[in-house]
Amino acid sequence: MQTQRQRELIEAAIHLTATEGIQKLTIRNVAAAIGVSEAAVYRHFESKHALLQAILEHLNTLLAPRFMLLLKQTDTPLAALKIFLDDLFSLLEHNAAFTLMLFAEETFNVDAELRPELMGLLEGNLSHLSSFYASIMEKGLCRTDLRPEQLALITFGTIRLTVSRWHLQKNENSLHAQLDALCNSLQTLFELQ
Amino acid sequence: MQTQRQRELIEAAIHLTATEGIQKLTIRNVAAAIGVSEAAVYRHFESKHALLQAILEHLNTLLAPRFMLLLKQTDTPLAALKIFLDDLFSLLEHNAAFTLMLFAEETFNVDAELRPELMGLLEGNLSHLSSFYASIMEKGLCRTDLRPEQLALITFGTIRLTVSRWHLQKNENSLHAQLDALCNSLQTLFELQ
DNA sequence: CTGATGTAAGTTAACGATGACTAACGTACA
DNA sequence: TGTACGTTAGTCATCGTTAACTTACATCAG
Q1: Which of A3, A117, A128, A145 has its CA nearest to residue A67?
Q2: Per the domain annotation, does B171 fall within a domain?
Q3: Domain region containing A154
Q4: What pLDDT, in 10s, does the model give residues B5-37?
């Protein structure tokens, strides 16, 4: 169970990493962000590694419900994808913290011991998407000549590259401007032939 | 113009980064890799930043000809994509240095001053792929209901995620095993309807 | 109610490692 | 004789981490 202080530290760390990059995620900076001394951080996390683990766990709790939302929509599943992406891109645009969710394995590659957690996150995301495609295939709303895992890979890969690029452009263009094109492409490609 | 020593340093730095991660790319380690002292590095690059810039430039010279190869194939362009990916994945599998090419903007995000170079690399890759799709659209060998830029984004995004995942799995499965599925998916999706 | 005691959570001030970088000096060779 | 290229031995900043000490507060015996 997490204490209030631990949650504060995790959120500060996520904000720091999302806005300034992983190299700014130091105990010093996290401590300063919530206005305590460095040593105080160690009252709540026994090491930086433990803090990183807690961050990843927290990221997972942020992302998982979004996917659930995607899976629950049963009446118009292909529109649900649009809604899902709309929701996701809104979050990404207004809260830098959420961008970390999508790129956790890239960002936290710094700590080799974190590999299992990182794999778990990525595979989780992909398998949620796979389930989504599998279910709409069953309903006959999507082409079935490609495996759901492939559609998931294509979807997630394209989302990530779109967001990466948007970041690199210093958020010049609105992310939503590119969302329409992306949704349109995926729907056109994946609809029944 | 680059000297012999500069090229050695660049290659050592790339190898180091690709195998051990960006956090191990230190002047100390690069110096050790070619068997000289730290100070000696500064005889050839005035700062670490200059070394990073040189690395990016070198990466570009590695990747660009591969894309040229993709664009030159005129008789059977869709098979050329398979050949291109085959070549690329072979390189990735046998030489860690090449993985850096695909992920330069992720990896070198550490130095904020490098942003323009990183953007240039990514946009270059995407525009090569776009040209490829535009040209085979003209020849009537590819669906035209999606813009070439979108197909490029989907292709590159999926390639990157496939490779990212393969890395995370510690190269458990062969990359080529996933290549066939990937090629098949792209061809199925992009062929004339 | 009082006072002792334990604990949670903070502090300051260091530690050793390591980062990028530099000054001063040595040497081989055109 | 000067230039290219190397060395050793440092500078200074910052990293994760820890030791030693303080403070606030809850619990509980007398």
Answers
A1: A128
A2: yes
A3: 52-190
A4: 999 999 999 999 999 999 999 999 999 999 999
